Amino acid sequence: MSRKHLIDSLAEMGILILTGITTDVLRLLYETNIIDEQKKKKNKLTIASAMTKAHHNQHAASADDSSDDDTHQIDDVNINYNKMT
To answer: What confidence tens digit (pLDDT) does each residue in 4-24 have?
Structure first.
């Protein structure tokens, strides 16, 4: 939100009179707006991070399952080889 937009919005709501706006009030309102925007971005990143982690864990679990299958196949080959000799 730009400073001009903030001033106009506050004036429309009757919270501030344009001639009586101090720099400190504007700075405080502007900083509050920036903090809110950062919180929104952080929440979006946290959700995306959690989704990525779950997706990674799913792939890791399926990789573990396939390695177990490979181990069983190797064991079967060893058993069959031992029966032949």
So the answer is: 787 777 777 766 565 556 667
